[in-house]
Amino acid sequence: MSVTSSRAFTSKYSNDEITVTCDPCRFSGKNSAALKYCKDCGGHFCMYCAKLHLKASPTKKHTLITLIEENETKKPTGKTRKTCQEHGAKLTKYCESHEVLCCNVCVLASHKECIKVTSLKEIADRNVVFRMCKDLESAIKRLQNKFEALHAEKQDYIKSVEQQTEALVINVNMYRKTIDGILNKLEREAIRRKDEFCKERTDTVNGQIKTCKTAITILDEAYKQVDTTLKESNADMFVNAKTVQNVVNKYSEVLSKIEPSEKEGLRFVPDLNIEKYLGGLEALGEVLVEKYSAVRKDNSPSIASSRRSTSENRKPNFTADINVKMKSDKKTCFITGATFLYDGRLVLADDTNKCVKLFGPDFKPVCSIITATSPRDVTTISHHEVAATLPAEKLIQMLRIGPKEIVKLRGLLLDIECYGITYHMPDLYVTSGWSAEREIQIINPDGELRKKIRLSKSIFRYPLYISIDPKAEVMYVSDYLNGVLVLDMTGKVIMQCKDADKGSYYKGVEVTVPGQVYACQWQDNGITRVHTDGRGLETVLSWDKMDRRKPLAIAYTSKTKRLVVSFCGEKRDLMSIYKFY
After folding, report:
1. Fold type of domain 8-90
2. CATH superfamily of 313-580
3. pLDDT of amino acid 129
4. Could you tell me if 575 and 335 are in contact, meaning their C-beta atoms sit under 8 angstroms apart?
5. Which residues fall within 8 angstroms of residue 229, CB to CB, at 6 or more apart?
6. CA distance linking residue 386 with residue 403, whole number of Å
7. What is the pTM of this model?
8. Element (H, E) at 133
9. Phi and psi torsions of 203, nearest 5°
C-alpha cells in the first residue's frame, strides 16, 4: 500500500478530515504530518521518524502501517470514532476534571495535572453506560423534536413574511389610491372653480351678444322705416320719425349700459405647499416591524382610564361598498359574522350559502369553504387560524387560513347552540344566542369547558355577539333585547347600556381600540358607540330606512384602521367599509 503525501487523511466511514502529526516531531516542536502508525506502541511517525523507529533495537520488530491502511483495517463497529481526533491514537482514558475522552498522548500532553484520569475499563460500568445511553436517546429525541418544531416554525415565518409582504404592497397601493383620491378631489375643485368663472363670464357676454343682435335687427327695421317715411305725408312722416327716435333713444340707453369687455387672462396658480410637502417626503409611509407577544394583564384594569387614552373625536368615515358575493354562491349572501386576520385579510361567515369566505386586504375575493350547516360567527385565533360557530351542530369549527385556501381542522363539540364567538388568549368565549341556556361558555382550545357565565333573564335574554377589550379585561355582550352588557372577566355586570325609550334590537359588537366599542342597532338602522363612562349610547352612523340597510355584523382591523359592516334586508350582498382618521 502506497504512502500518501498529504498532511491529512479522510476516513472512509466519516466525512471528517483528521490531521495527524508525527509524535516525535511534535515533542521536539515541529509540525510534521504523520504517515505511519505503529500497531505495537500506537505511535504516529513521519517517514523520517518511522525509519528511525524501525532501526532502534527496542522497536525494530514493530509493525508500521500507513494511516490509510490503519483506517481500513480498523473498521468502526459503530458510528462513534474510537480514536483521538488530535493524535489518532486509541482512546483509553477519561478525564473527569475536564469531562473528555483521552488517548495516552493526551494524558501526557494536557492532563498531567488532572486529579481524576481513569481508565475506560474502570469507569465504564455496563449498567451505568446503558442508562446513560437511554438518557442520551431521550435527550436526542427531545432535541430533535425541538429542532423539527423550530424548523416548521421558521418555515411558517417565511410564509408569513411572504404573505405580509404581499399584504404590505397591497396596502401601499391602496394608500396610494387614497392619496390619488385626495389629489383628484383637489383637481376637481380647481376645475369647478374654472368652470364657475367661465360660466359666469360667458353667460353675461352671451346675454350681451343676444342684446346686440336684437338691437341690430330692430335698428335695421327702424332705418328702413325712416327711408320709407320720406314718401309719406308730413303728419305720417312726423309720427314715424318720433317712433324711430324713441327706438334710437332706447337702444342708445341699452348700449350705454353694456360695458366693454375687458381683456382677462385666465391662468392656473398652483398651491406650491402641496408640491413642497410631497417633495419633502421620502416615502408614502414607514415600514414598521410589529412584534406580537402575549397580552400583559394589568393588575388593576380600568375602563375609564383606557377610554381616556383614545381620541373622543374618532368617528368612522365612509370609504366604499364592497360586493361579498362569490361566483360559487347560489343564494343571496347573509353575512352573520366577520373578523380580520392580523395581515388585513377578511374572513366572513355566510349563513345562507353555508360557507366561510376569505377576502384579501384589498377586499377582493380569494376563496371559500363549505360547512355542513350555516356558520353564524367567526373569530381570529392566530395568524393562520380562525374559529367559526355552527349552531345547528352545536360545534365550533377550527379552520386554517392559507394564502389561497381554507382547510378544516378539528371541531369542538358543545352542549349549547353556540352563536357569537371571540378569542381572548388562551380561551374561546361563546354565547348561547337564541337557545334557552342564556349563558356564556369559556372553552379552551382543546374543547374543554373552563367556565359558564349565567345571568338572570332580565340581563341575559338573548346574548348574541361578544367582544373583549384585552387591555381593560372587560367583556361586551350584545343582547338582542337588553342592549349592550359590560361584564368583567368573572361575569360580574359592570353596566348595561340600552336606549330605554326605543325598541331597539342589538346585534354585532366590536372593540376597535381599548375603550372604544361599537354596536349594531338593527331596528334603528344605525351603529352606536358604547360610552363606558355612563353616557350610554351615541349614534355615530345611520342609514335612511328607505335604503333598507339593517346593520348586522361588524369587524375592525387596527392594521388599516378600517371598520366593516354587514347588513340584512335588501343590501345583504354588500358590506360597507369605514375608516378612522
Report:
1. 30s Ribosomal Protein S14; Chain N (4.10.830)
2. TolB, C-terminal domain (2.120.10.30)
3. 73
4. yes
5. 236, 237, 240, 241, 244
6. 14
7. 0.49
8. helix 126-229
9. -65, -40
